[in-house]
Amino acid sequence: MKVEFTAAQDALRKELRAYFENLMTPDLKAECDEAMGEGGGPLWREALQKMGKDGWIGVGWPKELGGRGMSPIEQFIFVEEVMRAGYPFPFLTTESVGPQLAEHGNERQKREIVPKILAGECLIAIGYSEPGAGTDLASLKTTAVKDGDGWLINGQKMWTSLAHFCDYVWLACRTDPDAAKPHKGISMFMVPTSDPGWSCSPVHTLGEVRTNATFYDNIRVADDAMVGELHGGWKLVTSQLNRERLSLVNFGPTAEMFNNIVRWAQQLDLPTGGKLIDEPWVQINLAKVRAGVEALKLVCYKQAWAMTEGNLEMADASAAKVYGSEFFIEVYRLLGEVIGEASLISRRTDGANPIASRIERLYRTASIITFGGGTNEIQRDIISAAGLWMPRASR
Amino acid sequence: MDFGFSEQQRDVQNLARQILSENVSAEKLSQYDDYKAERFDRELWQKLAEAGLLGVAVSEEYGGMGFGFFELGLLVEEAGRTIAPLPLVSHLISAALPIQQFGSTAQKQQWLPGVASGELMLTAALCEAHNDDPAQPYLTTASADGDGLLLNGEKTNVPFAHIANRILLAARTNDGIAVVLLDPKAAGVSLTAQQVTSYEPQYVLHLDNVRIGAGDILAAGSDGSAAMQWIAERSTVALCAHQLGASDKAMRMSASYTAERKQFGVLISTFQAVGHRAANCFIDVECLRLNTYQAISRLDGGLDATNEVQIAKIWAGDVGHRVSYAAQHLHGGTGIDRDYPLWRYCTWLRHNEMALGSSAKTLAKLGKRIAAGEAFCS
């Protein structure tokens, strides 16, 4: 065991940090801020394609798939750095659906879609939840019905985030309504958002992040739009979610925010004399964040390491997701307290402190991942069953 | 970033786990309850010595295995898993390791072979009244006395002081900190027994003009401060490793209990509220595990680890506390029943939480380092 970066990994971190310092121009930063951490703008797309050209998006992918052949640890280092830089990285596409397509996709998908993902030219949204199927995802009703040499898709999905600027939806459909268990009748499809039968309407959220309701009206796709086996979609859903969970709780942005707030508090003169950072309660809040970020870093890297060994444990993936998502909420509170009432001032106010207004926004978005990506109650069920072998109630 | 154990580490872990699990039982532990007997299993001590484990981190030239601090940490973790009645932390980490690191050849020859063979007993006095920072003694002073030192003052909570051949301790001098090896039988030394929650034998150590010969001085002046910092960090992280073993075991005992206990006609593990409380422990223990391994790994590799040790201790305090009460709660009355083995774990979780600085105190220390710009996230 050696819980430290190798010299090469340290060098990679430095290289990436310098790379993103160049890449994140003030105009790109402003565009990303306007997009509320989602991306999708023209400069954002340009930057993503540059990362693709420079060989970063697939740094940890095998060479035969167009990657650089490094390990999942280097891949995680890249994602950590891109997120630290404040770039809304489309990790659902690159880190969760992409690897699924590389592993389970058919020849056409591997030939046409995977290289585009690594080039930063293809974006994919996740189509799981429906108005009546959230935590009980296997009860989904969107159907794909065999139609000659293709499939006819009908239904509605909810919370299809990013779909309004994505090329495809990674769509879970019911293909066998009579399956003995609901999760055994589900198949995965890559559905193009360019189809005339596809539409989406925005859902605006507390944190100003846009998500979508998406509609599938007699969309006809060819047989090779299916991913993996017929009725074998559930396995792909769960392993996609395991991968997604790691990306959701990347510690990079929090580490960066902590450092920025420490520097800010070191400089800030209090009207009563002294610096803000001299206050004992400020130091305690910062220390709590620091100790928590360290744990998150280790939890993340242990999983990246487990992927290199090919033994990502379900309980560990769920533990990372629960810990990270609940810790973020605590972080925004602790750091918000350090900033005080200024942490309520929106970035739209002239002269707003960007550090403070970032907390103002994050506070409003923080709850998303305690239920998104598989609600934390279900994650805790997984942990007690898979991690502690506790028999659980049948559902 | 490598989170896997080496073959050597796995061997040490397996060997320690095997010997300790076979030789420590609730029945055996019960004989030490309420200080009915001295909490020290000498037979088991000899078994560990014969297996080479007492000398796991002692260099080969002094009869040890010559492995590193990580392997030693794994041994302590296993001791925590069984709450073995052995003075491993005070003897091996707080005293023997510093002798190997800072001692003269003569001191190493005098003490290390006996450490590895289990014939000699060492301990360390790291705590003073209301001062649990081993690197900053206030109540113990040393003044020059020929080529030796004259010691005065008081230490508390000194484990196994009554059977130790030497007690490592630090005293304040005119020009820094002296680290010495005290013979508890020397003139001017007196011991007063303390009864503590874990039933570990502990003593108040009174020092009244005790003479320390030059041969028993381990480090002095500014070297002494650095040595005590070195000792404090390793002792602290050893407590974290012990806490990791103990909390992991308490958690798993609770999970097993809920998989056997029925109420309303079903296993209580099937209640989500029960499963979730156990899941919280799982997350907590994993955070403690990774922070502890990180700190040990860095110390083992000779890297600076001040922040990482403090963070591990904060987790050790918080996790020990939370797991202890979750485990008691999930067991219902059984958890606190003295005929069931859980309660002893709770006393050790408390011991490790409070020893060498609580979470609150360590958070304050880390906070000061953050304010000074010494603890940015890398």
From TrEMBL, chain A:
The keyword Flavoprotein applies. Keywords: Flavoprotein, Oxidoreductase. It comes from the Bacteria. Residues 6-121 form the Acyl-CoA dehydrogenase/oxidase N-terminal domain. InterPro entries: Acyl-CoA_Oxase/DH_mid-dom, AcylCo_DH/oxidase_C, AcylCoA_DH/ox_N, Mycobact_Acyl-CoA_DH. Pfam families: Acyl-CoA_dh_1, Acyl-CoA_dh_M, Acyl-CoA_dh_N. Residues 232-386 form the Acyl-CoA dehydrogenase/oxidase C-terminal domain. Residues 125-207 form the Acyl-CoA oxidase/dehydrogenase middle domain. This is Acyl-CoA dehydrogenase family protein. It comes from Zhongshania aquimaris. The lineage of its organism: Bacteria, Pseudomonadati, Pseudomonadota, Gammaproteobacteria, Cellvibrionales.
TrEMBL record, chain B:
Keywords: FAD, Flavoprotein, Oxidoreductase. Residues 224-370 form the Acyl-CoA dehydrogenase/oxidase C-terminal domain. The keyword Magnesium does not apply. Residues 6-119 form the Acyl-CoA dehydrogenase/oxidase N-terminal domain. It holds the Pfam family Acyl-CoA_dh_1. InterPro entries: AcylCo_DH/oxidase_C, AcylCoA_DH/ox_N. PANTHER family: ACYL-COA DEHYDROGENASE, ACYL-COA DEHYDROGENASE FADE28. This is Acyl-CoA/acyl-ACP dehydrogenase. It comes from Zhongshania aquimaris.
